[in-house]
From TrEMBL:
The chain holds residues 5 to 167 of 463 of the full protein. It comes from the Bacteria. GTP 1 binds at residues 9-16, 56-60, 119-122. Residues 3-163 form the EngA-type G domain. Belongs to the TRAFAC class TrmE-Era-EngA-EngB-Septin-like GTPase superfamily. EngA (Der) GTPase family. It comes from Croceibacterium salegens. GTPase that plays an essential role in the late steps of ribosome biogenesis. This is GTPase Der. Associates with the 50S ribosomal subunit.
Amino acid sequence: ALPQVVIIGRPNVGKSTLFNRLVGKKVALVDDQPGVTRDRRFGDADLLGMKFQLVDTAGWEDEDPASLPGRMRAQTEVSLKGADVALFVIDSRADLTPLDREIARWLRGQDVPVVLAANKAEGSSGDAGIMEAYALGFGEPVALSAEHGEGLADLFTALRPLV
Ligand code: GDP
Ligand code: MG
């Protein structure tokens, strides 16, 4: 089986854009357990010739803040089951949000390597956010632009030892 990379992050950071960028047209739509992880999408990704199964998660989109911790724990555990790498995506052009920090906290407690991707960094427009992202504790963030296809070589370099 292909190694599995699971894309994790709050809504609107560009997870699905990255998924589509790496999977291209070979997209499989998979119904998943309702109410636990909605709309997980699986696809065979090709990143500069490196192949892996990519999972796009959307389960945190309609999150009720009051139930956040418990729900997020369930989401994280289900999504990361069988994952070789968690690809944690943030928006490098926005300040880190409480949800970003909460996801980071949960990921630190999971037994899976984390690669941090600072998206929306086309033309180095996200420099400030990339510096802030160091503080999340996952090492050097990979600056990329899913929309413009920038930073993919750096993403390759970060993922290569883990898949
Ligand atoms: P998701 O909710 O994390 O899956 O995010 P989406 O992939 O749906 O993207 C949310 C918004 O961010 C959309 O308007 C995208 O066009 C935009 N977006 C995604 N990637 C980039 C990027 O690299 N640069 C910029 N500027 N916008 C992006
Ligand atoms: Mg999405």
